[in-house]
């Protein structure tokens, strides 16, 4: 993707107009001010500069251009944010890699949107959908909710959608690819996968339909034999265990509330949103997993799991506790009254009753401890041992969070357990390690949890001020990179993140491409923290006066640093020479030259 396209998209999306669509801005002199959307801001500290086309929060430090704002606000990668802004400005983007594959993917999204519209229109208008409309009305869902979530109906016919697709010009293979139809083994003809079902579009976090959930109508002749719920199969757009129903509409409310609540069913989500509790999502018939947690953690620091008061709910808590141990997220558990799901609770007792259940959610570890560490069990040694092992076995099955953070988290958890079971912390640690060893030796292996991509950014280690200023200058004025090449080596930079940024700039310069911050972000789309750091450095560098003169001074600084290192090595060689041996003339000459350097 060429840099000129990035510039074109930025020029077509005025930063004041774009940010103004997200939050109120007031003009103050040359800039615009508002409340920062990235932290709890009560006094306007968020500044937007229309001349430089950058934003900056003077309180939390967030800064960047219009693409960076959309990235941060929508939780997107650089390319995704660029595409969103390109569509906003009606700019077609040329793609430098895999254009056919990308165009095909966009076509699949268009097909899913078309299918959603077909199902939705049929639900609202077709006489054959009367039973589906009655079912949704019985569930208490309003027309506004049905429209907002795009609910639809797939008629009982085996070929309704396949015929619709043929008339609309959609190839059979494409409908099969996205899981809307399947082929018969006998003659290769296509039949609809969803029949006589209320259709719940499953959308990604950007609101694009990627799959469907179908609920068989209770009045269907197949209701006793067909599965009650039937989800799309895995496709190039959809993997059931990766998505959360309603996240596209819940994430903003979740950010305001500070957490997202997870329920089990589509109608539970719909009814909660309908009654004004919008920070609610649902898994798609799967247990909460690491991929869900990683996705949720982008928006909220805390997750509340809403469980039924039964054995299934207890098993769900155990699985969730493993996630609590191994992931940087706070998990809490809210328990529903017996024989009530969230939708029924909301209809019978209203939104306040559900809000109260969410408010009374218990920390996942405390929830488990409360159920294991009962007074009866703690009254005997064998009961204590059994209760302790039940909790520690869950922790032993969980992969450890890497680094010092993981060690501290594990230590805090075991300390809490020791206090509750009234045992010495050392004994609890020893039993935990024993269970971990037993699990490793056994043939049963714990579920692998993908490690996070290491974040290499200038905040991950303390950086030398000269190295920071060098990147500020070069990112603010890329034309100076050629001059820097003559006086600054990559190994002059000790900080790994800053060295990586300089390496990319030098590489771009060698390829004849302007080493701008936008080109860096294209190369760093797999490392958002480092790309964000590059933007911050650029914004800071724009405030540096006479950048060429500053670069000359920095080049002298790095030269003196190299000479000092060399002098240290030469002095070491000099001291290692025996006292009765002659001193090499060349060694003395080099030391003399370094000493005479201005």
Structure description:
It contains 27 helices and 17 strands. The chain is an alpha+beta fold and 598 residues long. The strands form 4 sheets. A 6-stranded mixed β-sheet has the order 12-14-13-15-16-17, with helices on both faces. Strand 4 and strand 5 form a beta hairpin. The two termini are 46 Å apart.
Q: Brief overview, please?
A:
This protein is α+β, with helices and mostly antiparallel strands and 598 residues long. The longest helix has 29 residues, at 547-575. Mean pLDDT is 83; it is low at 443-460.
- CATH homologous group name of the largest domain: DNAb Helicase, Chain A
Radius of gyration: 30 Å
- From the structure provided, what is the oligomeric state, counting identical versus distinct chains? single chain
Q: End-to-end span in angstroms?
A: 46 Å
Number of DSSP helices? 27
**Helix percent band:** 40-55%
Q: Strand content of the residues, in percent?
A: 5-15%
What is the approximate shape? Answer: globular
Largest sheet: 6 strands, mixed
CATH architecture descriptor of the largest domain: Orthogonal Bundle
Mean model confidence by pLDDT: 83
CATH class of the largest domain: Mainly Alpha
CATH topology of the largest domain: DNAb Helicase, Chain A
